[in-house]
Give the backbone structure.
Amino acid sequence: MHIFKNPLVRKYLLIGLIVVVGVLLGACSGLYPQFTYQGVLTDASGNPYNGNVTIIYRLYNDDTGGTELYHETEHVTVTNGRFNSVIGPNSVVAGLTPEDLSQALWIELTVGNGTYTETLQPRQRLYGAPYAFTLMPGAVISDTFSTTFLPDAKAILSINNTNTDSAAAQPALRVAGIKGIELSDLDTGNNGAGTIYSRQSGDYTDLILWSNDEAEVHVGTGNLANGRFSVYNGDNLVVFYVDEDGDYYFRGNPVLMAQTQDGERQVYTMESPESWLEDFGSGTLEKGVAQVTIDSLFASTVNLEGEYHVFLTPLGDSNGLYVTNKTATGFEVRESGGGTSSIAFDYRIVAHRAGYEDLRLEPVPQSAPADGE
């Protein structure tokens, strides 16, 4: 019997269910990178073969040549020419990785019955079953996952677009829907925090958010107190946060990048132990007296019923200027010593912001995010 002796052997290899495990790996506990393979073996005359054979399955990344990515040996019973095998390791830590399975694959069979051994040609391309091209609504990918579970894998699910042309490349992942993406840890209570990381390997792994229009951050939308947006540094210290009332807190100096003739330079703001607002203006003395009306728009932002301050700068020779008759709508400027000069002057008015009159060097709120939180 001339079994498996080329070119007399006829082979009708039928691929049954080819599971795209690069997508489904880890979909539930116990799902490993395996797939079923079915085929028909005949002798040189086309008669179905019966008996036991040894088949070596090899996976390559090319139809000829290429790199062998995986192989295994199966002892198979052939009945009326038909055989069936489950190919792939029964543990996700051995043999095949998600990266192996995310590329085009070809399978090659070497069949032997103890007398003859033959490598069947050509290799056959593996294709996904139709349902493997998508996920059903409500699909879950879940398992206990760590570097000991699958050392070479970077995540339970990796989506890569290897096109490096920034103008032509399409997104690696697109999510459309009113609710977008929900992130949560495994906390089943009310503190399940969602986290986004940049690449975990390497020191220079930036995280970039890109918007063609507005970018919004909503905090405290659950009607809970103390909602905030916080920024931490590399030492896990809070360097900035803004709460849901719009109050913001920071460590370090507020720095403005100002354009100068020698390039951009840093300029700094003045800080205060109290909440003050200020305005500037000009006036003119007529025979030593001027009446100044405070701008009503500025007046609506401050408390002028209480204490406020006016600073004067005379713009001509005089005996000096002073402020008197301060009210919530204006103040009077006079020349010292009963002088009667008619000169211009500048003024600066400083008043407490309305609603914040009693604040002075307040403690940082107890609700502030803790360092290392």
Notes: The mean pLDDT is 84. The two ends are 75 Å apart (CA to CA). Residues 45 and 169 are 53 Å apart (CA to CA).
